[in-house]
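Customer escalation, tier 2.

The customer says the design service returned an amino acid string that "doesn't look like it belongs to this structure." They asked us to rerun it and document both sides in this ticket. The original structure tokens are below, unchanged.
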């Protein structure tokens, strides 16, 4: 019998073809590599988790190399047990009850010449959307009054559809936008929201700029592109331009970016890779966090969207395999799995969490928005009404409302209420 550092029996016996030397070496491997210690702590850091995953790989590889599959099964069983012991501690919010309005509270059907690609809230009554070569701002005052405020960009640098847009969390009149034509631009919105001016543009990327995000202090932003690069930018003191800090070669297409609330990391998801890559902003080093629960490197899905819960303790990776996974930030611990959407390798799904961290909204290729109760992982509602693929979602800062935009050239505002 062999015992791990946790004190649990790891195996009942080695396989019949194992030797005494192999048993001794296995006991030494377990003594040297203890992957259970790190995952048993809810305060696990990205560095410690990465080390624990590496340790587990050493043990797994040892057993596979020697074809001790019974022992491997026993090891994986204990590994699962260690993970299960902390899963229920990660999210403990009680299940609430909600009422959902089946029809949109508001709908914007502007004479768009193209599909609407992104949507975001500038404030509780003002939304900004992107289309082909233009950005539009609308004010929603009540059910019957929707006012178009701005429809063009002064000195617009865009020659292709605007695929991505991020609003500065500290200076909400500053936004950064990226296009299919590889252009990246810093834009300023006037105080009355009636003018959009391009302050500075760049052609740093060589292909689509697919995702953007601002740091929590509003001083930095990151751009990700299908040219396999992530560029980190620093806003100038006068906030009219930005300087390039560093360019990271991610080897494959970048799909999603997310700054952590503490400002320590930029999380990057790339295609054909099972790792979330945590860029340390102080050192620019990269920590690899495996999204596979057992630490293997088989790629069965791509993470196409990253969103943090409002408390920033968890990050949700929305995939192209009918699934969204909620991880504890900095770890591979899967606190929740949300199944039920219909997405494949040709989709571009997105998800967002409400202000209370109680509901997860996810898009699906069947043109519906699925609403999950985050406490029990169950689908509790579907918003139906779009006639084409849904491109983006945004939560109203006052909560209780969700904006969605689609290839059907509409923006719809949905509402719900907690009973």
């Amino acid at each position: 019998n062999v015992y791990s550092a946790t004190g649990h029996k790891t195996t009942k016996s080695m396989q019949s073809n194992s030797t005494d030397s192999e048993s001794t070496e296995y006991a030494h491997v377990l003594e040297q590599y203890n992957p259970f210690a790190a995952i048993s702590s809810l305060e696990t850091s990205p560095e410690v988790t990465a080390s624990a995953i590496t340790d587990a790989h050493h043990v797994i590889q040892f057993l596979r190399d020697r074809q001790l599959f019974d022992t491997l099964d026993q090891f994986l069983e204990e590994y699962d047990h260690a993970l299960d012991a902390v899963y229920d501690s990660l999210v403990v919010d009680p299940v609430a009850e909600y009422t959902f309005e089946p029809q949109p509270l508001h709908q914007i059907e502007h004479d768009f010449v193209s599909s609407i690609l992104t949507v975001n809230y500038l404030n509780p009554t003002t939304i900004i959307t992107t289309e082909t070569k233009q950005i539009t701002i609308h004010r929603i005052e009540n059910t019957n009054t929707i006012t178009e405020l701005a429809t063009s960009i002064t000195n617009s640098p865009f020659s292709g559809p605007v695929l991505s847009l991020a609003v500065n969390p500290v200076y909400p009149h500053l936004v950064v936008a990226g296009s299919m034509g590889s252009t990246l631009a810093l834009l300023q919105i006037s105080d009355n929201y009636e003018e959009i001016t391009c302050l500075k543009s760049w052609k740093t990327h060589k292909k689509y700029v697919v995702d953007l995000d601002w740091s929590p202090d509003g001083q930095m932003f990151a751009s990700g592109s299908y040219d396999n690069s992530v560029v980190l930018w620093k806003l100038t003191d006068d906030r009219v331009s930005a300087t390039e800090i560093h360019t990271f070669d991610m080897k494959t297409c970048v799909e999603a970016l997310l700054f952590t609330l503490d400002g320590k990391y930029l999380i990057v998801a790339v295609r054909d890779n099972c790792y979330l890559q945590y860029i340390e902003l102080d050192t620019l080093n990269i920590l690899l966090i495996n999204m596979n629960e057992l630490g293997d490197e088989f790629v069965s899905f791509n993470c196409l969207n990253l969103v943090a819960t409002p408390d920033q303790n968890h990050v949700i990776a929305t995939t192209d395999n009918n699934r969204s996974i909620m991880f504890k930030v900095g770890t591979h611990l899967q606190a929740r799995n949300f199944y039920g959407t219909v997405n494949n390798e040709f989709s571009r799904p997105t998800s967002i969490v409400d202000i209370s961290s109680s509901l997860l909204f996810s898009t699906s290729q069947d043109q519906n928005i699925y609403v999950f109760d985050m406490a029990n992982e169950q689908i509790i509602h579907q918003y139906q009404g779009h006639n084409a693929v849904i491109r983006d979602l945004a939560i109203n800062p006052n909560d209780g409302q969700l904006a969605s935009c689609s290839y059907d050239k509409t923006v719809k505002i949905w509402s719900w209420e907690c009973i």
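Tier 2 assessment: The sequence is consistent with the input. The chain has a mean pLDDT of 85. The helical segments are 20-32, 36-39, 46-65, 69-90. Sent an explanation to the customer and offered a walkthrough call.
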